[in-house]
DNA sequence: ATGGTTTTTACTGCGTC
DNA sequence: GACGCGGTAAAAACCAT
C-alpha cells in the first residue's frame, strides 16, 4: 500500500500534526539496512521498503472502516455520527424534541414558549409514529407478497394476510417482534383460514425467520387477535398433492372420499393432517390403478413413508367398516 | 420440566423386475 | 442387484400439563 492511499483515507481532515507525523515516519530509516520505512495502514504495520523488515505491528488504523471512493460513500462509511440501528423504525435518525424546556443556551423558557414546545412535541410524535407505521406496513406487505408468490398462494390469501397484519399493527403487537416474523405468521394464518394451508416447513423455507419463531409468533398473534382457526382439513391438501404427482381427478375424488369416511369413523384425532392427506392420495392411487410410490408421495408431502403406511392402513380399515 | 403421543430414522426381510 | 413395500424398535419432535 502506497502513501497515496493513506492520503485518501485522511484527506478530508488532514491536520498539520498528521502530516508532520506522516513525514516523520517516511523519513525514518530501517534499523537493519538503512532503507526507508513505509507504513501500511491496512495491515497495521510499518515495514522497511528495502528488506521488508516489520518495524511496527498491530498499529491502529485511524481511517474509516472501509475505503470510500466518492463523497456519498464517505458519508456512509465514515465513523462520524450516531450508529444507525434497525431496532428503531427510522433507524434512530428522526428528530426528537428534548423535554427539558431549556433553550439552546440552557436558559429556561417562558411559560408561553413552554406550551408551544409541548404542542410541537405532541405533533412531532404523532407524525413520526404515523410515518413509522406506514413504513412498517409497506415493508411487511412487500414481504407477504414475496412469500405468497413463492408459495403459489392466491390473491385472496395475501389480502387476508395483510388484514391480519394490519390488525396486529393496530393492536400494538409489534414491539418486541420482528416485522418478518409477524408477516410470516400472518401469511401462515391466512393460508390456513383460506383453506389452502401450507405447512410450517414450507412457510419457513421462504421466510427469513426460523420455524420456531414463526410458530411462536403465530400462536401469539392468533391469541391476541382471537382469530378462529380450525386445525387444517386434510382434504385441503389433496388437490395440491395430486397435481404435483400428475394424478387424475378420479384419484383426487377417491382420496377425498377416503378422508370423509375416516372422518366419520373418527380415525383421525391428533394425527397430522398432512400425513392423512398423503396417505389418502397414496391409497386412492392404488384403488384407481394409477400407482405412485410411497416414496413419491412422501417427497411432495414432506412426510415419512412410515407415516404414510400407518395412515393408509387405517384409512382402508375405516373404508372397510363403512363399505362391505 | 415432564410424560404421553405421534412422527421420523434406521434397519431388516421379502418379492418382483 | 435395485427397487418397492411392510414391519419394528428406538430416537426425536410435539403437545398439554
Features:
324 residues, mainly alpha, Cyclin A, domain 1, 3-stranded antiparallel sheet, 13 helices, DNA-binding
Description:
The protein has 324 residues and is mostly helical. Among the domains are: 132-225, Cyclin A, domain 1 (Orthogonal Bundle); 234-322, Cyclin A, domain 1 (Orthogonal Bundle). It contains 13 helices and three strands; from the N terminus they run H-H-E-E-E-H-H-H-H-H-H-H-H-H-H-H. Helix 4 (111-150) runs antiparallel to helix 5 and helix 10 (249-265) crosses helix 13. The longest helix is centred in the middle third of the chain and has 40 residues, at 111-150. The chain is flat, with a radius of gyration of 33 Å. The model is unreliable at 1-26 and 69-77 (pLDDT under 50). The structure holds a DNA duplex (17 and 17 nucleotides).
Kindly summarize this structure in a few lines.
Among the domains are: 132-225, Cyclin A, domain 1, CATH 1.10.472.10; 234-322, Orthogonal Bundle (Cyclin A, domain 1). It is built from 13 helices and three strands.
How many strand segments? 3
End-to-end separation = 88 Å
Second rung of CATH, namely the architecture of the domain at 132-225: Orthogonal Bundle
For this structure, what is the CATH class of the domain at 132-225? Mainly Alpha
Q: Mean of the pLDDT scores?
A: 77
Please give the largest β-sheet.
3 strands, antiparallel
Residue stretches low in confidence (pLDDT < 50, at least 5 long) are 1-26, 69-77
Amino acid at each position: 500500500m502506497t502513501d497515496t492511499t493513506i492520503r485518501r483515507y485522511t484527506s478530508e481532515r488532514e491536520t498539520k500534526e498528521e502530516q508532520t507525523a506522516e513525514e516523520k515516519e517516511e523519513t525514518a530509516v530501517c534499523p537493519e539496512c538503512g532503507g526507508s520505512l513505509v507504513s501500511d495502514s491496512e495491515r497495521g504495520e510499518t515495514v522497511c521498503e528495502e528488506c521488508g523488515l516489520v518495524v511496527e505491528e498491530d498499529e491502529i488504523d485511524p481511517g474509516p472502516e472501509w475505503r470510500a471512493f466518492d463523497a456519498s460513500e464517505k458519508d456512509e462509511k465514515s465513523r462520524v455520527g450516531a450508529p444507525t440501528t434497525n431496532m428503531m423504525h427510522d433507524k434512530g435518525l428522526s428528530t426528537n424534541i428534548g423535554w427539558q424546556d431549556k433553550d439552546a443556551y440552557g436558559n429556561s423558557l417562558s411559560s408561553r414558549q413552554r406550551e408551544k414546545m409541548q404542542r410541537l412535541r405532541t405533533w412531532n410524535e404523532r407524525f413520526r409514529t404515523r410515518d413509522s407505521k406506514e413504513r412498517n406496513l409497506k415493508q411487511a406487505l412487500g414481504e407477504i407478497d414475496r412469500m405468497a408468490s413463492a408459495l403459489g398462494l392466491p390473491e385472496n390469501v395475501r389480502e387476508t394476510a395483510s388484514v391480519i397484519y394490519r390488525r396486529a399493527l393496530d393492536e400494538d403487537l409489534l414491539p418486541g417482534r420482528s416485522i418478518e416474523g409477524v408477516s410470516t405468521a400472518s401469511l401462515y394464518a391466512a393460508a390456513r383460514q383460506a383453506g389452502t394451508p401450507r405447512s410450517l416447513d414450507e412457510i419457513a423455507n421462504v421466510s427469513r425467520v426460523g420455524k420456531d419463531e414463526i410458530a411462536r409468533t403465530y400462536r401469539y398473534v392468533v391469541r391476541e387477535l382471537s382469530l378462529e382457526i380450525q386445525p387444517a382439513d386434510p382434504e385441503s391438501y389433496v388437490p395440491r398433492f395430486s397435481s404435483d404427482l400428475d394424478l387424475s381427478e378420479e384419484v383426487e375424488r377417491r382420496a377425498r372420499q377416503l378422508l370423509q369416511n375416516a372422518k366419520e369413523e373418527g380415525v383421525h384425532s391428533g394425527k397430522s393432517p398432512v400425513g392423512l392427506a398423503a396417505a389418502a392420495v397414496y391409497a386412492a392411487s392404488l384403488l384407481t390403478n394409477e400407482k405412485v410410490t410411497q416414496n413419491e408421495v412422501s417427497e411432495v408431502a414432506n412426510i415419512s413413508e412410515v407415516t404414510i403406511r400407518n395412515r393408509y392402513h387405517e384409512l382402508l380399515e375405516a373404508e372397510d367398516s363403512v363399505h362391505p
